[in-house]
Amino acid sequence: MHNLVSSGTAAVTIALASAGIGAGDEVIIPTFTFVASFEAVLMLGAIPILVDIDDTLTLDPEAVKKAITPKTKAIMPVHMCGSMANLDALQSICKTHNLILIEDSSQATGATYKGKPLGSIGDLGCLSLDYVKIITCGEGGAVLTNNESYYKNADHFSDHGHDHVGNDRGAETHPFLGYNFRISELHAAVGLAQLRRLDEFVSIQKKNYTIIREALSTIPEVTFRTVPEGGEESYSFLSFFLPDLEIARKVSEAFRENGIDACFHYYDNNWHYIREWQHLKDLKTLYPLSAEIEEGLQYLKTKQFPQSDHYIGRNISCLIKLSWTEDEVKERARKMVRCINEELS
Questions:
Q1: Which of 272, 268, 244 is nearest to 256 (CA)?
Q2: Which of 37, 148, 225, 307 has its CA 20 to 30 A from that of 316?
Q3: What is the CATH number of domain 2-195?
Q4: How would you classify the pairing of strands 237-241 and 223-224?
Q5: In the annotation, is 281 catalytic?
């Protein structure tokens, strides 16, 4: 079951609300994500608890275990750059501690884990359908669930609490408070057309991804992100590690100087990694926050994430485009190999 909504951020907000997560509840999220992850949690008055990633570039299950407190209500892995968290491990943790598993699959539509699409495995899943995703509505999102109660909650909450009973909208009742996170019919129509081509898009991306990965595999110092056993990426990004932070920074700059676009070194990135989220650490808001949030986020003023730094500092993630010709992909791969070898020498 799914609800189409106005954005991926809206999808995460609705998923959390549908599961009853709100004031003072703690939600475990990764240090490497998009700012929307903690924005959605804060919007509901809950507290984002950021924990380390591992070489999957997603939540480290051992770090998750250490972060659980009596206030923890949900674990929210974010399947960044087209690949997934170790969902078996996270599901086991949720079962042990009676927690809700919410998948943020905004960047991994088309990827699968043990034969199931990402977003369909947890209690709730969230997709983003904005213009930079593998399938797009222009702007939109979706909430996925196999739980009838969560489905109804999401349906009502995303449309001002309307119960959607009958054919007269003005006569509908409101079982509970809701907000306006509806998608427009025009955006939905675009998304449906795109969805029919998802398998085709993944196939093209896999071809382009494979050409570049095989080229980079000839460099002994390059290693690749770990994909959990049973997982298959969406091939929307190729993520690899270099020996250290200094080399990664130099390679990233060399890529830019040589016209190799859309390759991201997230260590210094404002949008996707904890290091540069000063507005979160300093709680810069337009309005007063609850005492629970202010107290609950004090840990970010001093907490360090050396394990996450170790992986993000050495990582470069390169977008894989559908529009490239085979010759363009091969030329891009040659340039990337040359740049990396020059910085390693």
A1: 268
A2: 37
A3: 3.40.640.10
A4: antiparallel
A5: no
